[in-house]
Amino acid sequence: MRVRRGTWRWVALLGTLSLFLATGTPVWAAEPVTLELQAPEQLALGDKVSVTAMLKDANGSPVPAGTVILWTSGSFLSVGGAVQLGEAATDAQGRVTFTYEARNEGAVTLNAYFRGDSRYGFAQGSAAVDVQGSAQLTRHPIEGVRVPGIGVWILAAILGGVWSTYLAVMVFLTLIAREGRVPAHEALHGAGGRRG
Amino acid sequence: MSSQKETPGQESENLRKWRVSRRRLLKIMGAAGVVAVVAPIFPSLVGKVSAARTQTNGANGAKPGRIRQWVMVIDLRRCDGCQGIDEPPQCTQACIQGHYAPEPMQWIQVFEHELPGGGTQFIPTPCMQCHNAPCVNVCPVAATFTTPEGVVLIDQERCIGCRLCMAVCPYDRRFFNWGNAPIPPESLLADYNPEHQAPAKRGTVMKCDFCPDMARAGKLPYCAQACPTNAIYYGDLEEDIATNGEKLVKLSHFLTENQAYRLKEDLGTHPRVYYIPGHGEAVSRDPRRHGRKATRWPWQEKVEGARTWKR
Amino acid sequence: MEKVRDQRREDLVRTVLHPLVHTGKGYYMVVGALLLVVFWGLYAYSTQLREGLIVTGMRDRILWGFYIILFVFFIGISHAGTLISAILRVVKAQWRTPVTRMAEFITVVALSVGALMPMLDLGRPDRIPNLVLFGRWQSPILWDLLSITTYLTGSIIYLYLPLIPDLALCRDRLGTQGSAWKRAFFRIASVGWQGTARQKKYLKIAMGFMMVIIIPVAVSVHTVVSWIFAMSLREPWNSTVFGAYFVAGAIFSGIATIIVVMAILRKVFRLEAYITEKHFINLGYMLGGFTLIMMYFNISEYVVTGYKMAGETPFHFTQLLVREFAPFFWMYTIGGMVVPGLIILFPWTRTFTGVIIAAGFAMVGMWLERFIIVVAGLRVPLMPYEPSWYIPTWVEWSVMAAAFAMFGLIIAVFSKLVPVISIWEVAEQYEEEEGKVPASTEVSGRPPMRPARAEGAPGAGGGGGGTA
């Protein structure tokens, strides 16, 4: 239900706007304007490019301070509809520049529209972009401590050092045991009798 | 001593045998000791420590080859703690019912936080799915792990219950099954999976699993589905998109435009849950109206021998 | 002259070996009582196994309790032994000889008991093998596992090496007096020690290795134990000083434990002639020194965080200094550090009794310190919720009692198995005192001590012990 609601809102908005254009002049005397959108045609996935929209009036003079919205359509988790990519006002040259980052491969249509204001009417423009590529853009984290240059080898080295010392001590223990048996046996001879 | 009665020659013979066998024993014991003690680092040395049960990969997403990176954005401007409908927070309720979460566990919990100018805001808090997750770092057996999709999960079939992960979690988002969990009997029929941790297992840790299995099936997590004001957005960092079920937003644009922040950002845990500051103003909540309804665990019937505990 | 010397050594041997073959009724009563407590603890633990950790007072917010406190406490005590005996050996302190054996043994016992504690704390003790199957080297738990097993092995070796000559002495002197298995134990464990010059050389080298390696191993153990806490982002634990703080606390509580245990064994086994009040005073000086070090660490820790009052520090300081934990905190700081420090400071209180009282205060204080670190540290709320509370249940009290009983029990059993004083080292010290170059005959268990005398000697209610 909610999904539909969202989609319908945009369909209704766009429908009204196209009706607006089709009938030509609005009821009130708004000056007609044009919105031209320029974007590179070919992009690789992950490219960040500038997308420029020019807002001009009928005479071709720039329209400053007009709010332009950049959007594209998308779908995610069974929700489809318009995705707003940016919103900014035109400068003195009637230009507004957005940064578009291609995060979705395939054919993408970028749309821009100017809603109109008290003086100017509605305008829109679009540009087709083809995005190629399949590279992963965000890296997933690797769990665990990641201190540069430190690894499990440091633990292995410490443990190895301590345990080889233990082993060395054990070797001395066997030496003591051997010493206590072979040569001491002779020495023991005399003492051995006394023991009983 | 038996050797006392033997002649010196025999004694020597016996002693030598005994000495040899003992030396061998010492050697074996020494080697065994070293092996036993150093054994715990073998898995690390051969690089085989990874979670056994990671079912996630990019292949079942829409974009083959690219791996989804799930994130959540919670728009606090739209969260009134369900004061508007006079119910307990619906995100928590739906999560409890969807996951059969046992009694004191609120995997997504709505905290009421004082605002500096008086009044309060409600902060629904799921597991933050930290990029640099302290819990994952300290787990001795990789029972808690990060999936390639960036989700921090717990394998209750490996967890030893040391609770170090709970001690290091700065968001209080981990829950322990202290006893036989008060869960409904039907949860015992659930097919256990770290992405859907039901049924609860005694002596292990549980938490919000971020529902990536539902997202892969094209559904929003329980909490986002149930939110009456659509305050919870679920998204993909990789495709830079998110939705609250009502509309789509360009994630990066949405976060930037709305001054999004993350909880305890200064700790450097890099959570994957973002917040847009607010106190329910978009759904006409009066910030000076305090309190929310208490969370309910709705089951009439609980598994045998279950006991409830408090956090 | 020669005779006097022999007599002195003979008395030593008699007194120390006496408990190995003569056991009184009191001993069995004590062991029985301790066993009873241990079994009660086992019953309590079986309840926990059956019902889960729900039978304890721990919950999600204060998720560690007595078990982890006791873990830190016992591992701390274990430092006493080895570290003190190793340091005293390395610096060749003359008065150490009657003390080291007990210190080393306390280490092994405390370590064994302490290492058990985290296992009791586990929600799934049946999955301990997972630590080996899936161990992650980045986890502080694994560091603990590795360092404690390494330390335990090391301290057993370190306890065993200086035991060899004494075990040989027992083998030779006790003759038919002990039971068969005891004689077999002495025969095997003394690895054919005859006291030859070469054996002595080997033993000396081996002990040289061990007393050097055991010091860093011991330091690493308690550092790693502290990292269980310090590797978290919780306000009261997030501290770089924790490692050193824990090591100092460990040695401090260890010295206190040695003093207390030594006083008990001395009384029970009538060792007054060998463990003199001078030894207690000397250990008292060490205790006093460590009260200063502990105070310094507390000042470093609390002044630095308290000055800034960042984050949740105001909450933590309030609960510590004036609220819920205030009795424990002040018991710890005043009772556990200032009082023992003052007792040692003043000559008129620095007596045998004074030192034991100071040690008792220090032990209780250090237990409270661990309680404060674990429970108060966990109580600081992480999110906007009401701080919870920890009330240990009968299960935890029982297990704690059983842990202490086990500590006493193993010491009691051990004291019947091997000499509690390192006879040959004391004898060696006599040689030095008497200005004689150690001859090849001295402590190997051969003449001048004749078996016939050993047999008759220890009877007569410790007449050989000499309370003089």
Describe the structure.
The complex is a heterotrimer of chains A (196), B (311) and C (468). By secondary structure, chain A is α+β, with helices and mostly antiparallel strands. Chain A has helices at residues 2-22, 152-195; strands at residues 33-38, 42-44, 48-57, 67-76, 79-89, 95-101, 106-114, 123-132. Chain A has two domains: 2-132, Sandwich (Immunoglobulin-like); 151-191. In chain A, the strands form two sheets. Chain A has a five-stranded mixed sheet with strand order 2-8-7-4-5, covered by helices on one side. A three-stranded antiparallel sheet of chain A has the order 1-3-6, with no helix packed on it. Chain A starts with a helix and ends with a helix. Residues 183-196 of chain A have low confidence and may be disordered. With 311 residues, chain B is of the alpha+beta class. Chain B folds into two domains: 2-45; 58-283, Alpha-Beta Plaits (2-Layer Sandwich). In chain B, the strands form four sheets. Chain B has a five-stranded mixed sheet. The relative contact order of chain B is 0.21. In chain C, helix 9 (197-230) packs across helix 10 and helix 11 (277-308) runs parallel beside helix 14 (352-379). Chain C is globular. Chain C has a single domain (2-23, 58-390, 416-445), classed as Formate dehydrogenase/DMSO reductase domain (Formate dehydrogenase/DMSO reductase fold, Up-down Bundle). The interface between B and C is large, with 63 and 55 residues.
- Radius of gyration of chain A, CA atoms, in whole angstroms: 39 Å
Q: Unreliable stretches of chain A, pLDDT < 50, 5 or more residues?
A: 183-196
Would you identify the regions of chain B where 5 or more consecutive residues have pLDDT less than 50? 1-9, 52-63
Number of strands of chain A: 8
- Shape verdict of chain A: rod-shaped
Q: Please give the largest β-sheet of chain B.
A: 5 strands, mixed
- Structural class category of chain A: alpha+beta
Provide the β-strand percentage band of chain A.
25-35%
Ends of chain A: how far apart?
101 Å
**Residue share in helix of chain B:** 10-25%
CATH architecture of the largest domain in chain A, please? Sandwich
Number of helices of chain A: 2
